[in-house]
Design brief:
By secondary structure, the protein is mostly beta strands. The protein is about 15% helix and about 35% strand. The protein is built from 1 helix and 20 strands.
């Protein structure tokens, strides 16, 4: 557990040991705890908590979870499963849900137990997806509680798909170049 992932904290919890690809970026202030797997090229940004203490959390490759988010589970009932190339905005709460590949989760959203966002689905900023709801592939839902608004255009889906590679590249830069300032450097 001596691997430096970028300044964040990675913790075991008893025999629950995180499994993290070598090129994952975990930003300063972020915490990854317990039964968590994170795939290659993914990033966990500043002050995000990923807590797999009472169920499992699985995060695919090239996925990013932006600053101030919380990823948790429901004891012995719902793990949290996040696919590949998923974009998760700032201050998001994910709790016992499934996010399939290439979905987009807007800023300050909440996704509750048993909910699913299918491939290329999108929950708009500030949305609350209640327990057990499903956003179908290519749909846009907004509001609190969230509701279906319309299908995304092919151009919107393409634009959303550009974000995951951007964040993987940005994470590589942070992993390589992010250093604490030294006294007298400022």
């Amino acid at each position: 557990m001596n691997k430096d992932f970028g300044g964040g904290s990675v913790f075991t919890l008893g025999d629950l040991i995180p499994k993290i690809a070598d090129d994952v970026f975990i930003a300063p202030g972020a915490q990854v705890i317990g039964d968590v797997t994170i795939g290659a090229g993914s990033s966990i940004w500043n002050n995000t908590v990923v807590r797999g203490d009472v169920h499992e959390i699985r995060i695919g490759s090239n996925t990013n979870i932006q600053d101030g988010s919380v990823v948790h589970v429901t004891h012995d009932k719902f793990g949290t499963y996040i696919g590949d190339n998923v974009l998760i905005g700032h201050s998001v709460m994910l709790h016992g849900c499934i996010l399939e590949d290439w979905c987009f989760v807007g800023l300050s959203t909440v996704i509750m137990d048993g909910s699913v966002i299918e491939t290329n689905g999108m929950l708009g900023a500030g949305g609350l997806l209640p327990p057990g709801k499903r956003i179908r592939s290519g749909q846009l839902w907004v509001g609190s509680p969230a509701r279906y608004i319309r299908d995304l255009t092919p151009e919107e889906i393409a634009r959303n798909r550009e974000s995951a590679p951007y964040y993987s590249k940005l994470a590589r830069r942070h992993l390589k170049d992010l250093k604490p300032c030294k006294k007298g450097q400022l």
